[in-house]
């Protein structure tokens, strides 16, 4: 089992691996060395009955070393700490305006628009001016939930509440918990709908993944007591 397990880790590069020290075929420390060498971004947490290997564990840069019987709240705390380790740069866009530089959290952005040759980033609470063009903003946001909805708008699809016809050639886009609106061209409507579907599928997968993680934690909790 450990060899198959290691093969899966090295091929999938998961964010987190939880494993014991005492395993057949390959002990946890040696397995961690392989993971650390081939998948350095994977966080390693040891869950074990052996309390004497913590030095070796931290030599392979284990994130945590937990002893059985498992305290479910303790491992959930560790997982939350791992999630919070994402750097601000991964969750923000760097915005320049004149001499000012700001890091704007992506989750706070509703949409971005060009207005009178200026780029405005609309958050829930403010409008932020930027030297970036709309295309440059979109390039920085290419792997996120943002989508170009017209020549003048880039919209955070994950924040959209509704779409309603505005004219024969455009739609008005409304956002959850906000009175602000953006606009969607009829030409971009099909790709916008596809983006919404993909995000809905992503959210569904995340809910399933979180449920599976919780079930896994329950399983190891009841099998370690």
Per CATH, the superfamily of the largest domain is LytTr DNA-binding domain
> In which order are the strands of the major sheet placed?
8-7-6-10-9
Tell me what the CATH architecture of the largest domain is. Answer: Beta Barrel
Counting helices, strands and paired strands, the structural category is alpha+beta
State the oligomer: single chain
CATH topology name of the largest domain, in short, is OB fold (Dihydrolipoamide Acetyltransferase, E2P)
Please tell me how large the radius of gyration is.
23 Å
The N- and C-terminal alpha carbons lie at a distance of 22 Å
SSE series? HEHEHEHEEEEEHEEEEEH
Instruction: Give a quick account of the main beta sheet: strands, pairing sense, barrel closure.
Output: 5 strands, antiparallel
Mean pLDDT: 81
Work out the strand percent. Answer: 25-35%
CATH class of the largest domain, named Mainly Beta
Helix content: 25-40%
Please report the total strand number as a whole number. 13
The poorly predicted ranges are: none
Can you give a write-up of this model?
It is a single chain. The chain is of the alpha+beta class and 225 residues long. The chain folds into two domains: 2-85, Rossmann fold; 90-203, LytTr DNA-binding domain (OB fold (Dihydrolipoamide Acetyltransferase, E2P), Beta Barrel), CATH 2.40.50.1020. Helices cover 36% and strands 31% of the residues. It is built from six helices and 13 strands. The protein has helices at 2-12, 28-38, 54-59, 72-84, 134-140, 189-222, and strands spanning 16-19, 43-48, 64-67, 92-97, 100-105, 109-115, 118-123, 127-130, 146-150, 153-156, 160-165, 170-175, 181-185. The chain has a five-stranded antiparallel beta sheet. The longest helix is centred in the last third of the chain and has 34 residues, at 189-222. The protein is elongated, with a radius of gyration of 23 Å. The chain starts with a helix and ends with a helix.
């Amino acid at each position: 089992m450990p060899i198959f397990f290691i093969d899966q880790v090295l091929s999938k590069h998961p964010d987190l691996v939880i494993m014991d020290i005492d395993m057949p075929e390959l002990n946890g420390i040696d397995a961690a060395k392989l993971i650390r060498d081939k998948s350095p971004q994977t966080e390693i947490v040891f869950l074990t009955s052996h309390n004497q290997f913590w030095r070796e564990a931290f030599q392979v840069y284990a994130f945590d070393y937990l002893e059985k019987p498992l305290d479910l709240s303790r491992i959930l705390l560790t997982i939350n700490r791992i999630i919070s380790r994402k750097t601000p740069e991964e969750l923000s866009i760097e915005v320049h305006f004149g001499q000012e530089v700001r890091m704007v959290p992506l989750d706070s952005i509703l949409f971005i628009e060009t207005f009178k040759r200026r780029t405005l980033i609309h958050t829930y609470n403010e409008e932020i001016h930027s030297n970036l063009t709309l295309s440059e903003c979109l390039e920085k946001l290419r792997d996120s939930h943002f989508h170009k909805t017209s020549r003048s708008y880039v919209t955070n699809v994950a924040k959209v509440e509704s779409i309603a016809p505005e004219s024969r050639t455009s739609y008005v886009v409304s956002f959850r918990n906000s009175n602000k609106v953006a606009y969607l061209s009829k030409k971009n409507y099909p790709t916008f709908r596809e983006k919404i579907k993909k995000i809905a599928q992503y959210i569904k997968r995340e809910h399933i993944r979180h449920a599976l993680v919780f079930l896994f934690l329950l399983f190891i909790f009841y099998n370690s007591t």
